[in-house]
Amino acid sequence: MNRKYLAGIAAASILTLSLTACGGSRGGGDAAAEGEGGSNEGAKIGVAMPTQQSERWIADGENVKSQLEELGYEVDLQFANDDIPTQVSQIENMINGGVKALVIASIDGTTLTSVLDQAESQDIPVIAYDRLINESETVDYYTTFDNEEVGVQQATSLLTGLGVLDAEGNETGEEGPFDVELFAGSPDDNNATFFWNGAMKTLQPYLDSGVLRVPSGQTDFEQAAILRWLPDTAQDRMEDLLTVGGGERLEGVLSPYDGLSIGIISALTSGGYSADELPVVTGQDAEVGSMKSIIAGEQYSTIFKDVRELGKQAVTMVDALMKGEEPEVNDTETYDNGVKVVPSYLLESEIVTVDNYEAALVETGYYTEDELK
Ligand code: BGC
Q1: Which one, 61, 86, 167, 300, has least CB within 10 Å?
Q2: For residue 179, is it within any domain?
């Protein structure tokens, strides 16, 4: 880690959770040291997003871009079509194009080490956006949601939908047994394990006591994981699960992402479940397609992560670094990327069902009522 900016930011590092002493920090110090209107004013910032196949990432990219532009920065925003070599070369081009900071939502958190070495050699600070970048020293800050809590919320909403928990999260005494199947996210996305661990921590007591049963017996992350979060892969797996489970009617499916939920519901529908006998299916991201499904009574729940807030947080971090200041963080323990614990700012998420979507999504201006029709 290049430490040449440490002196420049020393004055700003009295923040409670400053990690300056153990991690160092790059970027922005030079400009600050150069005095008023340092060279980072109007600097170009690279924003690398994984895909445009999912609405949330389009919204993330646009939020970060527009908020940076409002502060006077120039933005190079790229989407990588979920292709790792594309993302690597996009980041290389950003570095060659003179960006002063990088905001990266990785596809595979372990594949960026060598391109990030190039960023390091040019003192370009790197902020991991939503997904942790693993095995690299060159990731300075991370902003995301409390990902384990997202998994807890997914499992909690499954239990609520089944009637095992009531709306306040208290046990109802309902003993089942309920037959459920479990899905996990992409194994190369660090978040997927956090979601899974949070969910399994919540479900395990009910699996142990027999309130929940998994007809396929597939309760390991590796068995449940869906590479690249692809809806079609989830649909195929759900079709397979319907044939191996011994014909039991499923009452619940733990799904970690709305795109997967849509694939899962398609498989269930073509496997003979009518709309009113669909199992309780969870999700994540409050994407429009799933919100419509929730309102129509198909998908049961999703987890709302306000990406406007996530974008704001990333932009605040970039702006601080560009001004030679230390970004604020609120977690310095959870996100170990294999090389270092990355100082993080974690945001909160919320369970959304048909009962609270208006308050959570419409009244907050995230969607208009019309968009959800
Ligand atoms: C994000 C989720 C999203 C998933 C699939 C994860 O890294 O945190 O919000 O559902 O990727 O795009």
Answers
A1: 167
A2: yes
From the list 55, 120, 111, 53, the residue with the least C-alpha distance to 80 is 53
**Is a pLDDT exceeding 90 seen at residue 323?**
yes
In this structure, are 128 and 183 located in the same domain? no
Same domain, 65 and 153: no
**DSSP string of 4-63, one letter each residue:** TTHHHHGGGTTSTT--HHHH---SSHHHHHT-TT-TTTT-EEEEEES-SSSHHHHHHHHH
Task: Write out pLDDT tens, residues 117-153.
Answer: 999 999 999 999 999 999 999 999 999 999 999 999 9
Nearest-atom number in ligand 1 for the CA of 131 is 7
Same domain for 25 and 132, yes or no, is: yes
Residue nearest to atom 5 of ligand 1 (CA): 229
The pLDDT tens digits for 64-87 are: 999 999 999 999 999 999 999 999
Same domain, 165 and 237: yes
Reported confidence tier of residue 21, pLDDT bands at 50, 70, 90: very low
96 has pLDDT over 70: yes
Identify whether residues 250 and 321 lie together within a single domain: no
Domain assignment of residue 122, given as a range: 2-139+308-348
Give ligand 1 pocket residues (Cβ under 6 A).
54, 56, 130-131, 185, 189, 191, 229, 257, 284-285, 305
Task: Retrieve residue 152's tokens.
Answer: 């807890």
List the CATH number of the domain containing 172.
3.40.50.2300
Report CA(290)–ligand 1 centroid distance (Å). 14
Q: Going by DSSP bridges, is the β-strand pair 350-352/302-304 parallel, antiparallel, or unpaired?
A: antiparallel
